[in-house]
Amino acid sequence: MEWAERLTPDEFWERIDAGERSLRDSAAAWPSYTVAGWQGPAMVGEWAFGDGVHAIVHGDPLATRRDADDLVLAGLEEPHVLVRTGDDDARRTVHLLRRAASRPGEAFDVASVAHAAPDEIAEIVVESTPVLFEVWRDPDCWWAAGSYRDDVIVIEARGLQPASLRLVRVADIERFIAQRREWIIRLRREAATECAPSRGRVVPRDAPDDEPDEPDEPDEQDDGSAAHGAG
């Protein structure tokens, strides 16, 4: 995506407001699922305003990222569940999610594994009905693909097991919209605190100072004798 312009705060929030209105208009017609009894943050994720993917993210959406040294960033120990509906090819989606969660530089050929057999078949309850899901596992995460009625469901999860998961259809999208807005506000606040004024500019606090130091003012009593020797 390329941004053609830099938005003012008012313009930014006008676009957020417009997106939320479209979310409300489409939520009733297209199914999405949440984790029953989830106590942490849960918000709208990827969302098509019509036929397509509709996702609810449980936990911080950025908490599964890794840095270049394979050090787990803060938040990875917290439970995380992504529930997607509307994918055309559930297995391919699973492997795209696995690639997104892989370590930087790690080889991951989606084409060669898109039809790989799952590691296991697990039962996950959806709307009080036990449903069989294909499950793929990595050390930190697991992914599942299945269907309930006419809904294709893909799950990415960490910190809990498939048998403990129970999904229910979202009846009221408002709280998921509100928590997404709160998350955006927090991100913008954190981004703002990363910058501080420096010599009339705004630069990241941890950025090196690329401007040379100003030379010291000469001592008014120094007649140059110290540099050339006395007498």
Description:
The chain is α+β, with helices and mostly antiparallel strands and 231 residues long. 25% of the residues lie in helices and 27% in strands. The chain has 5 helices and 11 strands, in the order αββββααβββββαββα. Strand 2 and strand 3 (54-58) form a beta hairpin. The longest helix has 20 residues, at 174-193. The chain is globular and about 50 Å long. The N and C termini lie far apart (72 Å).
**Shape verdict:** globular
Strand percentage, roughly? 25-35%
User: Distance N terminus to C terminus?
Assistant: 72 Å
Structural class: alpha+beta
Short description:
The chain has 231 residues and is α+β, with helices and mostly antiparallel strands. It contains 5 helices and 11 strands. It is 25% helix and 27% strand.
Summarize the helices and strands and which ones pair or pack:
Elements: H1 9-27, E1 33-35, E2 42-47, E3 54-58, E4 80-85, H2 90-100, H3 110-113, E5 120-126, E6 129-137, E7 142-148, E8 151-158, E9 166-169, H4 174-193, E10 195-198, E11 201-204, H5 225-228
Parallel strand pairs: 5-9
Antiparallel strand pairs: 1-9, 2-3, 3-4, 4-8, 5-6, 6-7, 7-8, 10-11
